[in-house]
Specification:
Blueprint: H1 3-20, H2 26-44, H3 50-63, H4 67-84
């Protein structure tokens, strides 16, 4: 299985979890999906690591922040860390 397929599978699993286990609305899940796509696309060229992705999903889930408030700063921080270090 390719890395991209694995990431897509993780995203789908997480979105299903949000819908089934957390009972989030379709609009909220769409927001998560949008932000996760931005995260994956922004990191595609940088060869995203599974640990980064897992950490991102964990932060969203445990902090219970809106997807936009969580993803945007994290995307910026990940990009900054990779380009500076």
């Amino acid at each position: 299985m390719s890395k991209q397929s694995q990431i897509e599978e993780l995203v789908d699993s997480f979105l299903n979890y949000l819908f089934i286990q957390k009972g989030l609305s379709q609009n909220t899940i769409s927001s998560y999906k949008h932000d996760l796509k931005k995260f994956v696309d922004a990191n595609k060229a940088l060869e995203i690591k599974g640990a980064d992705f897992d950490s991102f999903l964990h932060d969203i889930n445990t902090l219970e922040l809106s997807p936009k408030r969580t993803a945007e700063p994290r995307l910026e921080r990940n990009h900054r860390q990779r380009t500076e270090g």
